[in-house]
Specification:
Pfam families: rve (PF00665)
InterPro entries: Integrase_cat-core, RNaseH-like_sf, RNaseH_sf
CATH architecture: 2-Layer Sandwich
CATH class: Alpha Beta
Number of strands: 7
Number of helices: 7
Strand order of the largest sheet: 3-2-1-4-7
Distance between the termini: 15 Å
Radius of gyration: 19 Å
Helix content: 25-40%
Protein name: Integrase catalytic domain-containing protein
Strand content: 5-15%
Order of helices and strands: HEEEHEEEHEHHHH
Number of domains: 1
CATH topology: Nucleotidyltransferase, domain 5
Structural class: alpha/beta
Length: about 270
Amino acid sequence: MSQLRAFLRTIRPTQSEDPVIRFETEPGEQMQVDWVEFRKGSDPLYAFCATLGYSRVSYVEFVTDMKAQTLIECHERAFESFGGVVKRVLYDNMKTIVLERDVYGEGEHRFHPGFLDYSKHSGFLIKLCRPYRAQTKGKVERFNGYLRRSFYVPLVSQLRAVGLKLDAVTANREVRCWLDEIANERIHGTTKVKPNARLQEERRYLQVVPEPWRGKIAAARPQRKMPVIKEAPKRPAVVTERLNQEVPVQHELSVYEHLLQQIVQGGVA
């Protein structure tokens, strides 16, 4: 895969990466989260994307569903990767986040009970984009486009040339290298600093990563009364440091290594 990674490293963000109006946040203040849908149907493929508002460091995880439990597990691994938890996380109208908007008054929403419990456990406040204003989470939206054209499309093209289809196992193995060596090491168009370098500053303002959430996901049916978040939840007095969690065990697909080396040696586009 080293030849493919060298090729991916040459692909840079386009000059239109950043809009004219930008909304900046303080270190440790905000993370923006979004799903990217690459395939639907019987063989789906999605990417969970999270970007820190200050440093612009991003985390990506490829999955085969967008269930609430999957969303929570992706959050846990993202916080581990960043080295801490932000104060607020910004979302659009995901059904795994919010069931009804403004049900108790303006800005007082009915949240998914399982995810609400997880947010309290982790110590972050759920924030929603304004209706029809998804661009308010523009940092992760712009990163999503960069991920698609600079990582996903080249990798899929290389595999398609030899009759292979990208799966979550291979995508996650490759995207970790791409994030560490390319995406989070590039000079960011807005900050003019490498995201990884800025993360060193932002980590001082992040909350401690809690122990793994042990709650259960209930059916997301409307209920008569749900808690309303108006302020960021307080941190517990004592937080146990979380044990290192490995990504779920995945078998090594050596066939990809072999075939992609053949592609590079043979000059397949």
